[in-house]
Specification:
Blueprint (H helix, E strand, L loop, with lengths): L3 E10 L2 E11 L4 E5 L6 H8 L7 E6 L2 E2 L13 E3 L12 H7 L9 H5 L3 H20 L15 H14 L4 E5 L7 H16 L4 E5 L3 H7 L2 E6 L2 E6 L1 H5 L2 H8 L10
Parallel strand pairs: 3-8, 3-9, 6-7, 7-8
Antiparallel strand pairs: 1-2, 1-4, 4-5, 9-10
The structure holds adenosine-5'-triphosphate and magnesium ion (MG).
Magnesium ion binds next to helix 1.
Length: 260
């Protein structure tokens, strides 16, 4: 089966069930958003897909490949890339160098061919550069390409992280809070990029996001989680107006309870 398929995923930390029998499918080319209050289990779902965590129950596959049969270091090779809630980049390296790191999985050459500087190495190097330059152009990172990450404003670092994930040329992109900490203008740019990534590049996107404006603008479908469990799935409007979702956000219990 193509796309991302999670079935009955449960992840516990000691006595805490962070993700509780979560099931969803992200169709190829779709933008699917996970929303929910802090601690709902959204990032844990990402960490299961990228195999940092092994779930106690459930199955997970991408384009028919059993993800749980693979260790974390295989995941990029299966065409899955991610960004992190807390930006994770090489601080002392430049933007260009960080993006080239993303190309690692495509390297065909080995240490010996590198050592003798064979023509294949130079061809390979040019191909990597070209892929990275495309990402730099797409994300308007040209002015920053040779600057170290450490000196860049937060909003630019956020874009570089997206760029590093894109440079791997994934088929599935996991974005953990792509708009957190961004200005209104930067969030708007992020929305356009996510749309282009899905529509023009044909990359499937699973995102976690608190900014419902961004979610409404880009997501085909939305799943709301609270305390690890699904509350509702549908369009952004459907999910936002769902009583169980409203209750979870208010946390007051004064909205009619319909779920669970
Ligand atoms: N490695 C871990 N060890 C123990 N508990 C964890 C671990 N990772 C997450 N948790 C717990 O699991 C629950 C879900 O956390 P998770 O980070 O998935 O939430 P989230 O929906 O991403 O929240 P936020 O919106 O704040 O990022 C929380 O109660 C969290 O404290
Ligand atoms: Mg999180």
């Amino acid at each position: 089966m193509s796309g991302l398929v999670l079935n009955g995923i449960t992840k516990r930390f000691g006595g805490l069930t962070a993700v509780d029998t979560v099931t969803f499918t992200v169709e190829p080319g779709e933008v699917f958003a996970l929303v929910g209050p802090n601690g709902a289990g959204k990032s844990t779902v990402f960490n299961v897909i990228s195999r940092f965590y092994t779930p106690e129950e459930g199955t997970a596959s991408f384009d028919g490949e059993d993800l749980l049969a693979h260790p974390a270091h295989d995941i990029a090779g299966l065409g899955i890339a991610r960004t992190f809630q807390n930006i994770e980049l090489f601080e002392q390296a430049t933007v260009l160098q960080n993006l080239l790191v993303g190309r690692h999985r495509h390297r065909k050459t080995n240490v010996l061919s590198d050592l003798f500087h064979l023509p294949s190495v130079r061809r390979d190097e040019r191909a990597h550069r070209a892929a990275v330059e495309d990402v730099i152009d797409f994300l308007d990172l040209q002015p920053h390409r040779d600057r170290p990450i450490a000196g860049l404003p937060y909003g630019v670092r956020k874009v570089v992280e997206l760029g590093r994930a894109l440079a791997t040329q994934p088929r599935l992109l996991l974005l953990d809070e792509p708009a957190s900490g961004l200005s209104v203008e930067e969030t708007q740019d992020m929305a356009f990029w996510i749309e282009d990534i899905a529509k023009q590049m044909g990359i499937t996107v699973l995102m976690v996001e608190h900014d419902m404006g961004l979610v409404s603008a880009v997501a085909n479908r939305v799943m709301a989680l609270a305390d690890g469990r699904e509350l509702a799935t549908g369009t952004a409007a459907e999910v936002q107006s769902h009583p169980a979702v409203i209750e979870a956000y208010l946390g007051t219990g004064n909205v009619r309870k319909v779920a669970g």
